[in-house]
Write a structure and sequence with these properties.
Helices cover 41% and strands 21% of the residues. The chain is built from 27 helices and 32 strands. Strands 6-5-9-3-2-12-15-14 form an eight-stranded mixed beta sheet, with no helix packed on it. The chain has a five-stranded mixed beta sheet with strand order 17-18-19-21-20, with helices on one face. The chain has a four-stranded antiparallel beta sheet with strand order 10-11-16-13, with no helix packed on it. The radius of gyration is 28 Å and the shape is globular. The chain binds phenylalanine and zinc ion. Residues 125, 127-128, 266-267, 270-271, 304-305, 383 line the site of phenylalanine (PHE).
Amino acid sequence: MRTENAPVIRLEDYRPTDFLIDKVSLDVVLEPTATRVTAVLAVRGNPAGRPGSPLVLQGDELKLLAISLDGERLAPNRYKADPQGLAIEAPLPEAFTLTIETEINPSANTKLMGLYRSSGIYCTQCEAEGFRRITYFLDRPDVLSVYTTRIEAARDDAPLLLANGNLIERGEIAGTNRHFAVWHDPFPKPSYLFALVGGRLDTLAETFITASGREVEVAIHVEAGKRDRAAYALDALKRSMRWDERVFGREYDLDVFNVVAVSDFNMGAMENKGLNVFNDKYVLASSDTATDADYAGIETVIAHEYFHNWTGNRITCRDWFQLCLKEGLTVFRDQEFSSDERSRPVKRIADVRGLRRQQFAEDSGPLAHPVRPRSYREINNFYTATVYEKGAEIVRMLRVLIGADAFRRGMDLYFAHFDGTAATIEDFLGCFAEASGRDLTHFAQWYEQAGTPVVTAAGHYDPAARSFRLDLTQKTPPTPGQAEKQPMVIPIALGLIGESGRELTLTTAEGNLIENGLFVLDGASASITFTGVDERPVPSLLRGFSAPVKLETDLAEADLFVLFRHDSDGFNQWQASQTLATRFILEAVRGARDDVDARFTEALVHFLDQRAESDPAFAAQVLALPSEADIAREIGRDIDPAAIFDAHMMVKSRIGAALGERLEALYAKLHSSAPYSPDAASAGRRALRNAALSLIAAGDPAAGEKLAGTQFKDADNMTERFGALAVLALIPGSGREEALAAFAARYRDDPLVLDKWFALQASIPEAETLERIKDLMRHPAFSMGNPNRVRALLGSFAMTNATQFNRPDGKGYDLIAETVITLDRRNPQIAARLLTAFRTWRMLEAGRREKAEAALRQVAASPSLSPDVADIAGRSLQ
Ligand code: PHE
Ligand code: ZN
C-alpha cells in the first residue's frame, strides 16, 4: 500500500461503535501452521451508536471457516468476508451471539503481531491492532469485554498454557496427547490487552501478599534453562507491586500475575492483563551476562508494565489518539519508582539525556507531532518518544504546578471516576482541575502543540537598588502542520546563588515570595524582579528540568562555574558542567579553540575531590560529556558530523590528559573485590570507574589500552567486561580484534550478549565499519527475523554512529535504506522504526543532505511498501 492510499484517521472523527461486545469466549486450538480459533461473541447494539447499522468487524490476513448467528449458520448473502474484514448486513437483533471460526498460521507470522511463534513458543501481541489477526473483531480500545479463553495444544509442544485472568479449569483430552486450560478474566478489557501463551517454559514463582492480605502468585516464565536469570526481574516485580500500594494506593487485582519472556518481540514489553509478555532483554539477567544498565532497564520495564495494570488496563484509552493517557502517565510512574529505588538526581539526569536525545531530536524534524496527535495513517508509528517521554514530562509538570498533595488527590479522583472505562486526556486533566481548583485549559496546550519551546533568560543586577531582574521569553518553532505557535504554561523552578555559593532568599518586588522557587511563564514574555539582593546573583533556572524546553541563558562562563560548584539542585549542577563542555566543543567545531579551559579541568578535579566517593553515580554523569548528537542539535543546521566528532574527541582527550593522574588514582581506588551485586551503590562505583577508564583512554590511548586489557581479562561481571571492551573497541589494532573474538567465543550461545557485541562494532567511528557490518549481517548469530538483532547491529549503526551513518559518500544511508526495504516485507514495524534514523536529515550540510534525501526517496519509491514504512518515508520527505 502506498502512502497516498493509506487512509488518514482523525481525532475529530471519533464516534462510538454501533455495537458492543460484552463477552468473548475464545477457543484456540494451537497447531504450528493451522491454529483454529472459535470466537463466541455476545454482541448488542450500543445505545450511543446508530441503530439499524450493519456490523463491521476488522480482520487482518484471516481465513474464515464458519460463521453463525444465534446458533444458525449465516447465509452467504447476509455477510461479506475477506482477510481484512467481515461485515454482516442489517437488520440485526438487539442482542445476539456471533460464532466465528477462523484459521491462522502462527509459524508464518513474521510481523510478530497477532499469534506467532518465538523459538517454538506460541505467544500473542495485540497492541495496537493485532487482535484482528486472531479473529474478526471490533478491534479498538473503547470496546470492553469480559474474556474467557480455552487453549488446547499438544502436551509435549506446550506443557504450559496461559491466558489473561485466573485459571479456572485444566485437563487432558482423553485418548490423545493433547491437553487444555481455561482462563477467565473478570475485568472488562479492550482487545489489545488480550494474550495467550503456550510452550515449554521454565517458571520462577513466589507468593505476594497484597496490602489488604490477598495472596497473589507472581511468576516469571522463561526459555528452558534460563530460570536463574529471572530472579532479578521477579524481585523488581515484587518491589513494583509494593511501591504502587504505598505511593499510589493501588493494589493488584487478580490471583496470578504472569510474565513471559520471549526472544522475538517488536517492542520492550506488553502489559496484557495478568499476562505480561516481555522481550527477554528486559527479563533475563545474571552478573555474567547483563550490565548494570541492563539491570536498571529490567527494573524500569517490569515496573512500567506492572503499573499499566491501573494506568492502561483498569482505565484504558478511548481511542489511540489518547495513547499518552496510558503511556505518558505510566512512564512518569516508572520514573518515580526508579528514582525512589535508586538516586533521584541521577535518574533525572539519565531521563533528561534520553529525552533530549530521542524526543528533542524527533520534535525538531519532519516527524514532529503533538503528544496527542490529531491524525495518523499508521498507529504503530506513534509509539514515540514524544508520546511516551514528553507525555511523562507533562504529568511531571502537572505535579510541579499543583503540588504533590493535589496531584495525589487528582490521581485518586481519576481512579475513582474512570475505573473500568476508556478515558480521554480531558477526563484525566479534569481530575486535577477538580483536585487543585485550578483552570488547566491553557496547560492542556502541552498535549496539542508539537515542538520544543525555547526559553531565553537574561538577568540584570542593580547593586544600588539591590535588585535583580530576570527577563524571560518563550518561543516554539514551527512543526509540520503547525506554523503558528501559542505560548505555553512553563513551570520554571529557580533559585538565586551568591558568588560564594550561598542560596539567596527569593523575594519579589511585589513582596510575594515565590512559592517553592517556582515561577510560571505562561505568556510570550515576563519579568520578575527580586529585591533585597545583596550581591550579584547567579540564577539557577529550570531546576530538576522542570519543563521539557530548551533553555538559553546569558550566563557567563564564570557563572556556570559558580553553578557547577555550588548549585544545591543536583540536576542543575550537572547541567552547568554539561553546558560548559558543550560551549568548549562548539568553539572547537568553529575552529575557535584547540584546548580545554584549565579552569574547567580544575573544577572537575575539585568536583571529584568532593563527590567521587560520596556519590559516584552522580560523578559518572558529570564525567560523561554531552554526546555528538547533543552538539549537533545545538548547531541545528548545516551539520558536519565529522567536524563534531573531531571537536568532541579533542575536548575529551584534553580532559582525559589533564585529569590523567587523578583519574588513574580514582580508577584504582574504585576497584572492588566484593562479589557482584546489582544494587545502585555498587553500580554507581562501577559506572564511575568505567567513565574514568574511558577518559584515561581518550587522554592516553596506550595507558587506557593497558588498563582496559587487564579489566577485560579480570572482570567477574558484564559491566566491567563490557566497559573494558567498549574502550578497547575504540583503539584500532590487533588488541581490539582479539578482545572482540574472545568475547564472541565466550558468549557464542547467548544471543542477548552477542547483541552487545553487534552493537559495539556497529558504533566504531571508522570508515571500515561499513564493511564490518556487512560481514556481521552474514554472521550465524545474526538474523533479520529477530528485532533485537536488527536493532543491535543496524539500529545502533544508524542511531549512534554519527560519522559512519553520515558518511560523506552516502553509503551509510544506502545500507539503511536497503535494509529497510528488505526488512519491510518481513516486519514492517521494525523496518519503519529503523527508517526514523533519518529524522534529522534536513539539518545536515548540503552534501550529506542530498545523499540522505536520495536514500529516503529510494525507499519511498520502492514498490508495495507497508503502510508503516510508507508513512515514515512520506512524512520524512514532506
Ligand atoms: N504498551 C507497551 C508498553 O508499555 C508497548 C507496546 C506497544 C508493546 C505496542 C507492543 C506493541 O509500553
Ligand atoms: Zn507502556
